[in-house]
Amino acid sequence: AQVYPGQYSFFGNLNYSIYPEKQSIIRMGPTFDFNHTYIPGGTNTDRSYTLGYSFAFNNASSMGINYNHVYQRLTNSFNLLDPDQFTGFLEGEEYDWNAFSIVYRSNPRRAFYYRLSSSFGGFYNGDNFNLSGEFTYRYQPYGNVALRFDFNDLRLPENYGQEQLFLIGPRIDLTFTDKIFLTTYVQYNNVLDNINLNARFQWRYQPASDLFIVYTENYLPQNISSKNRALVLKLTYWLNI
Question: Residue 238 class from Cβ within 10 Å (0-12 exposed, 13-18 middle, 19+ buried)?
Fold first, then answer.
């Protein structure tokens, strides 16, 4: 087995804020982010630069538009799709690409709020279009319901594969008391052709001490037949010494 040798990184952010007189926008301005990652020995494995422009609106919603440049030197071999059909990416190979992205977050103070984002441009040795988001309805104090989705139109060179990847997952968080909680989500992944169910019961019987009961099961979507299932119990206790 290969052991990852560790890493060290440095990162930073610069931004310039403008406070316009227009009441619908309380703040806007350019931003710049950078991130470099190295492994012992000094090899630069990852670096990214993001130049953007952000808006903060008076109703607490926000939006950002970004241009991204990414470089990666692979420390492990992997395959994005099916290793039995397509060529994989090999350890030591180097890739760099550019992409544009936009993200919008609605007012999180409302009972119903959402986040939408999209990006398009390069991705390793090909291109990718992404559309993702999450819709949430909060019903205080009992919990919230959310729906998350992620779509990728991945266009790599023919021998590396071209695929449309889709993931969708509803989630329910329930608060029965200030000590008893239940979280349940279902997730469908078209690449793995799998439906996953996960339910977690939590009882906080004293501060920083919890009992968790987790049930998970995977299904074939064609006939909703079970592939595997598991029931896990976890107990934590805080020793105040």
Answer: exposed
SS3 letters across 9-55: EEEEEEECCECCCCCCEEEEEEEEEEEEEEECCCEEEEEEEEEEEEE
Report phi then psi at 159, rounded to 5: -75, -10
Residue 123 contacts residue 97 (beta carbons within 8 Å): yes
Say what the pTM is.
0.83
CB of 23 closer than 8 Å to CB of 56: no
3-state SS string for 195-218: EEEEEEEEEEEECCEEEEEEEEEE
Backbone angles phi, psi at 63, to 5 degrees: -150, 145
pLDDT above 70 for 3: no
Nearest to 62 by CA among 118, 119, 116: 116
Q: Which pLDDT tens digit goes with each residue over 42-72? A: 889 999 999 999 999 999 999 999 999 999 9
Q: What is the pLDDT of residues 8-46, one digit of tens each?
A: 899 999 999 999 987 789 999 999 999 999 988 888 999
CA dihedral 186, 190, 191, 192 (to 10 degrees): 40
10 Å CB burial of residue 36 (0-12, 13-18, 19+) is middle
Report the residue count for the chain: 241
What's the one-letter identity of residue 133?
Answer: G
